[in-house]
Amino acid sequence: MRPSAVRLLNILVPVKRAVDYAVKIRVNPQQTGIDLNVKHSMNPFDEIAVEEAVRLRERLKDAVKSIKVVTIGPPKASEVLRTALAMGADSAIHVELPESSPAPEPLGVAQALRAIIQREKESADVDLVIMGKQAIDDDAGQTGQMLAGLLGWGQATFASKVDVDTGAKTAVVMREIDGGSEEIRCKLPLVVTTDLRLNEPRYASLPNIMKAKKKTIEKLTAADLSVDFTPRLETLKVTEPPTRVGGGKVESVDELVAKLKEAGFTAV
């Protein structure tokens, strides 16, 4: 039998600028959301997605043609693109939003990513989208599934292992599910969302950080993609949870039972 022809993969990795995972979240004085005047970094699940794209190229060698990252956000969001480029991505797209604009919702992001993928067809088809399963700021966990639905592609969510056969144009993905794992085989093109067990992202070396400054970041707007990011939901009020009250000590079981009865608990 003849070996299958090698298909060169073009990988797209969406990334998001979010409040750094180590920052203690506080509600802003207006109670309209959280205080954003704190350290930001790449969403941790998206870091895993970038790392997996780079590892795929390391495993598949010349079979991966390009790794392109994309973000949607204010001018400062270009920071996460530079990080991804330093990790090993080849080029980037920044869909720039005004500084004061609200964060786009999952459907708007999915529509923008679909528009970018359709736009990329002019040069080369995107074969694989690898993205975080959720962002740690809104925890929506919807964008990957919505994107696959809009494109009519297969999807493999919560991936803990990804193997791609470029000749057969398929991928075998191990998924994290309740109570264990599930292995599925999917045809390319495909949307994969990453779970924590997939890999450990690398630190960008200083030489790669310097090289990333020379890599291309293409600037686009919502109008360029014919996408409307107007929110469909309105946040009425955000408040912190009530402060926890410390517990009390009892001297005996009888006193404990009495306290429970006072609190309204009864024996079954």
UniProtKB/TrEMBL annotation:
Residues 31-229 form the Electron transfer flavoprotein alpha/beta-subunit N-terminal domain. Keywords: Electron transport, Mitochondrion, Transport. Binds 1 AMP per subunit. Binds 1 FAD per dimer. The keyword Nuclease does not apply. It is found in: Mitochondrion matrix. SMART domains: ETF. Pfam families: ETF. Coiled coil: none annotated. CDD domains: ETF_beta. InterPro entries: ET-Flavoprotein_bsu_CS, ETF_a/b_N, ETF_b, ETF_beta_N, Rossmann-like_a/b/a_fold. The keyword DNA-binding does not apply. One of its GO terms (cellular component) is mitochondrial matrix. GO terms for biological process: amino acid catabolic process; fatty acid beta-oxidation using acyl-CoA dehydrogenase. Its cofactor is AMP; FAD. One of its GO terms (molecular function) is electron transfer activity. Belongs to the ETF beta-subunit/FixA family. The electron transfer flavoprotein serves as a specific electron acceptor for several dehydrogenases, including five acyl-CoA dehydrogenases, glutaryl-CoA and sarcosine dehydrogenase. It transfers the electrons to the main mitochondrial respiratory chain via ETF-ubiquinone oxidoreductase (ETF dehydrogenase). Heterodimer of an alpha and a beta subunit. This is Probable electron transfer flavoprotein subunit beta. It comes from Mycena sanguinolenta.
